[in-house]
Design goal:
about 70 residues; mainly beta; two-stranded antiparallel sheet
Length: about 70
């Protein structure tokens, strides 16, 4: 998620988060530029069995149509 951009945070709901850690003095493996820290979002280990699917229909003019299917 780190490289997904700001839109990725909009898909996270509160019930998915276990805890949020603020690291004010990160180790040397992180970039030393600036004076900011690191926010680490720890997600719950919630494994559910089941099936998820989505269908996407797109249309445009002239003759620009497509159908997408995703099944997990």
């Amino acid at each position: 998620m780190a490289n997904s951009g700001g839109g990725a945070l909009g898909t996270i709901t509160a019930d998915m988060i276990e805890k949020i850690e603020v690291i004010t003095n990160p180790s040397a493996k992180y970039s030393a530029e600036g004076t900011s820290g690191i926010i680490n979002i720890v997600f719950k280990k919630d494994e559910r069995e089941g099936i998820n699917s989505s269908i996407t229909l797109n249309t445009g003019l002239p003759h620009n149509h497509s159908v997408g299917l995703s099944l997990n």
